[in-house]
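fyi for ur records
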Amino acid sequence: MEKRAEAPAAVYTAGYEGLLVDGFIDGLLRGGMRRLIDVRNNPVSRRYGFHKSTLSRICASVEIEYMHFPQLGIESRDRQDLERDGARAALFDDYERTTLRSERRAIDAVARLMQEAASVLVCMEARPCDCHRSRLAKPVAVRAALPIRHMELRR
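which gave:
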């Protein structure tokens, strides 16, 4: 049996937007990920395979640990009307002022997980700058003393 690659220690992030679940998981495996940390507040998706229960089952089948930290997500009611100029930046600034300050224990837990094994923060948006995971990655990286690496999975 061929040994699986393991990525060097870093705070990895990835989004599944535009991908099929098989391609997404394949990208994580090729990238050496051992753990998927779902940072969606409400992990449901109209896209097959990305609902929490399905994604967890698929991850288990390929020996990727699935963990969910809903408290590090943004509630859907707050993610409405993000196409307005400045709306996304305002939302993420508010996320930094509120969630990232109030959820220090969860951030510490995620940082420890990042140090233990190659782990990836996962949310929907393909581009990190369009997703709160890019803001979350910063304090996680500081606490874990690791660099941030945004994975670009094949589209």
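Residues 104-116 form the longest helix (13 residues). thats all i got for now
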